């Protein structure tokens, strides 16, 4: 059994931020840290005091994390970025909001004495003395201290205070991983209530020493325990009064913490087998379980349920069958062809998740080059005459500004070129489309054609495919390329308008150029020749796309299964140092790396366009190493230069690492390895919430005759699938109850002696 914690983070917007630039504005972005480890950096929104980001992230993290902090920064091109303020949410705060923290939070001042990090290794014990018992404090080492000096390190020493006496360790120069191994003793006052305070400081020759953090130990608890040893997390000094919160602006956030206790795989097998059995019988009808789940799923959680179910069946090799079952349910209740798959049903949400999981690389290969070209050109594009601003265009020649007609014509030419290039790339990509995506679209095409036969519904099967491929996959990626990892930054206002118009054109093609789509925006008429040509191209593409037989599907899947899919790829800069001594020079070489579950490789040229952020590379490396039995528990963050490690100054090259391996904080991506037990646990959690509806369903009089189905085994009585589901839920509830009350509590961090200053 393991506890899994995850954070759903949505950084919405900021307002009333202070101006940091001489222009009276700022260039804000947000950095998210979990226990002082940076994991997320949003895009920079230029020249505004009220930035909008709207960025969403899923973060998996250890259950022992303490806080998540949001730092609002002002980006500067020529100097160090300015800190505007921060919002800090502790684990206790998030736990007190079961449905998530949502709303505006005031930014607070970033105090250097509160920005501490790292841990200190202490050994505390009560020993007998000549007159009275003595308190012995051994300061052994510290790790991951905050770098306070310009050389990227600190000169740390430790100050130990108790009962009016103060003692200090020696100073370790230029290290964030110092080792002292020094012991101090104090006479223990029997009636004294004062705590033992251990403070870490950075020594400075000229200026005042910098605070690195402290640990406060409850001596009364130590009297009982007699001794305590372990790593203690350094705490900030919060004794100083804070500056007024209202003058730094506010940040709107949506943050939800989810803690799931995941049982061993065997506990979830009855639930998984029950769901898989129904999906396998989908050709005989939709069954009872999936319709019940769809019926009882609210709008708020439909996307989460759809994603969890999709990933569960994807891991069982039944994603296509599961989606086919949902297609049948949708078609049964749809009477008008023009409303098919237009609502946010379980089928629509599941198909969206499926395309993101199985087709993201395909999307990048088709849409990526077009998006890059739009960003590089930065042309002014506008088709709506009421929105044309000639002043934004400049002059077409030396003197004469462009007229409105010229702006509209050039805009139409630009959009026709982009749309034509996109459709041409799509037409050539049949073989590049993943086999499981092609097979799923084949099932969708056949089901819709069976439900709506006849010449009057000739385009309906094509529109059913394009409603997902174009309207719910390609168009959203074109409008918001950063959210689909097509770009590292948000588009500016001019580029956003071009992308929006291009997405509208793609939607018109996906709607098969129906009169209704043309009537909405008549000013899109200049693109009609390209749209009509695109409809013919798209129909030909779909015809070839769904023309895949079972044998070809298996062959393609077998070929892909032999290739380890990349978990992360993109450019990295390799630092190279030339020469020694004062004339040492350095350079950076750009190489393109590809990380799979089997190897890390590189080449001189890129194979595809990907984001290039350090935290994503670290996250990807942690994911592929999670099952590595040889993973080290500690490592040296520095290098062995000369006769010692640069990080901790130890002279033994084979000495154990001075920092612990961080392998628990990861960003969730669509290409993450599937976690079958976690998905099953999340489905169980959802079904537990609708258990009253399940019991009510079983009490319906009409179910008495339906329950008399064929026996499930030679010695088993006939049983309703919904009754089986109820029994599975009860068994899982009992398993959770047994696991939550163990005979001996699991080991925890050595925090029982700590009293944090507030």
TrEMBL record:
It comes from the Eukaryota. This is RAS p21 protein activator 4B. GO terms for molecular function: GTPase activator activity; zinc ion binding. Residues 695-758 are annotated as: Disordered. Residues 301-511 form the Ras-GAP domain. GO terms for biological process: intracellular signal transduction. Keywords: GTPase activation, Metal-binding, Repeat, Zinc, Zinc-finger. The lineage of its organism: Eukaryota, Metazoa, Chordata, Craniata, Vertebrata. The gene is RASA4B. The keyword Zinc applies. Residues 695-706 have a biased composition (Basic and acidic residues). Residues 1-105, 116-232 form the C2 domain. Pfam families: BTK (PF00779), C2 (PF00168), RasGAP (PF00616). InterPro entries: C2_dom, C2_domain_sf, PH-like_dom_sf, Ras_GTPase, RasGAP_CS, RasGAP_dom, Rho_GTPase_activation_prot, Znf_Btk_motif. Transmembrane segments: none annotated. It comes from Microcebus murinus (Gray mouse lemur). Gene3D superfamilies: C2 domain, GTPase Activation - p120gap, domain 1, Pleckstrin-homology domain (PH domain)/Phosphotyrosine-binding domain (PTB).
